Amino acid sequence: MKRINELVRRVLGVCGVMCMMSCSEVVEIPGPDESGFGTVADTWGYVRNTEEPRSTTVVEIRSGQSVSTQVYFGMTRPSSRTSSVTFRIDDSALAAYNLSHGTSYEAYPAGSVSLESDGRILMSGGSMRSSSMRITVRWAEGLSEGKTYAVPVRVTPPDESVRMNRGEDVYMLLVRNMGSIPDASKASGIKILSCMEVNDTNPLNNLEFTLRNSGKMLFDIVVLFAANMNYDAATGKVYIHNNENIQHLLDNRDKYLRPLQQRGIKVVLAMLGNHDRAGVSGLADDTARAFALDLKHMCEAYELDGIFWDDEYSKYAAGPGFVYPVSKQAAARLIYETKKAMPDKLNIVYMACELMSDGWNTKAGSLDNLPSVDGIAAGSYVDYALNDYRRDDDQSGSGFSWSQVGIYPEEYAKGVYNMRQYTPGQNEYDEMKQKGCGIHMIFGMDPTRSTFREGNDNVQSPDYQYWSLQNIARELFGDQLVWSGETYSKDW
């Protein structure tokens, strides 16, 4: 506890950075929009992962296992001839990456990493994309559990006429050593995110739901809802505010949060406005950079796995360090800077789709269709984008694949007889699978509430949480839900 308290004091010290602090250099996070390179006469090269539009990828490795991912080399104009592209591990590139991102990753042991075909792949004449190359990482003894390491892979273009933006000649594979911690991932690839109203509910309740056949945890991600962005008018600072419930869980993470992480569940902190001018969509660029660093130190202090963004309850206004009217561009900058500051942490956005204001409460709805930042598409700096209730909006225009998008989230806090309109039916579950959605959200799950079940194991009413959870297990995983029956009340 002493260590955490000391780290918190450091966080609060960092929060003292003024909104108008200057930044000597802006360094682009990998993964730019390929349409933004140079002039039409230029040929630019870049490296991407085959499964997601990024040049920085995070994988997890467990004791005795090996993991792999595939990358390719792309160009903005067709290759004039057939030639080869060369990849090699270059630990010297890691220092530059750490400097530009403010990180301190150590290199994963090079002897435990191999490149397919010795790193040589083919770029065919007339093509804008090479064949793919597999990078395989094998388990290495002696590394710290829970720590993230880096594999910097440098690419040599097929010829000197192909130009590379700064940092684009290096593909960074981040490897998180999970040791003996189990993996909650299911075969379908769909992740279940449980957004918890922790003012009323103990997050440990998420531990008691598994799948009968696979033995996997039902939930992959638990969101602590919510911490806040606040503005100190006396000092002109934007700071992180944790109410007494959030702070209690963080201060007692060994009791409430570590047990979730030890079962392979990620713990993410929600961030939203709090009835003053500070908010997701209203920070000027330098203010956003400073606040992103505060979030980084917060996540490091409490060993959190990322940030969940929700643009609600801000009373936006003009002033030094802010932009007004609010904008999607301002929201994108803040979220981008957060991903840049901690590339190995989750960056999740909830896409409210309304614009309404009743004085103190504003729901800006600015997190759908996020724009590029410094040429970087939103799909490269956001891990998952979650649709608003009863919506299935396509986010491909912002660079997202469907595997990064969640549709038709479920609301469990509406009460009996109101829940059915906020839970999907058969057609909606089928749509999730057909589109290849990679995430699904539930909000307000609490087995201690009367809306959880009728008192038997065969709940058939859509007005109860347990019925909905059974549907998720059956429809998204072809499995049967197992609930232990144990509940955790709010005990603080």
What is the count of helical runs? 10
**Measured distance between first and last alpha carbons:** 17 Å
- The percent range for strand residues is 25-35%
Shape: globular
**Overall number of strands:** 25
SSE blueprint and pairings:
Elements: H1 2-14, E1 44-49, E2 56-62, E3 66-75, E4 83-89, H2 92-101, E5 106-107, E6 113-115, E7 120-123, E8 133-138, E9 148-156, E10 163-164, E11 170-179, E12 191-197, E13 209-211, E14 221-232, E15 237-241, H3 244-251, H4 253-256, H5 258-261, E16 266-272, H6 285-302, E17 306-309, H7 328-341, E18 346-351, E19 356-357, E20 362-363, H8 378-381, E21 384-387, E22 405-406, E23 410-411, H9 426-435, E24 439-443, H10 465-477, E25 481-483
Parallel strand pairs: 1-10, 2-11, 5-9, 12-14, 12-24, 14-16, 16-17, 17-18, 18-21, 21-22, 23-24
Antiparallel strand pairs: 1-3, 3-8, 4-7, 4-9, 6-8, 9-11, 13-25, 14-15, 19-20
Helix pairs in contact: 1-6, 6-7
